Amino acid sequence: MKPKTLVLIASITLIALIALCLAWETILAPLRPGGSWMTLKVLPLMAALFGILRGTRYTYQWSSMMILLYLTEGVVRTNDAAPGNALALTEAVLSVIFFIVVVLYARNTAPSRLAQASGKDA
Hints:
The protein is mainly alpha-helical.
């Protein structure tokens, strides 16, 4: 896949994950009625957002490790009562998609790969 396509997919997935986490913890199925401090879990996602949108390779690298926390939460919370279990599954699926895309982006934009590609074109 082309890096621009991967940036688009990663951006859409990350924004969807931010929206899901905010809606989940404030409206859809908060841990406490009226919302909870769990909404703060979007802060690491927000920290990665601008780097992902810009295609900053370093952000893709560290966010590939950070997203595993959200995958873990999604898998663990699939035992919640409805609708929390469906939201948890959605979080896990979005996390897996994001992980795959950022790893592909980091791999495809590695300096060694870019040097190889420019060497083949010459």
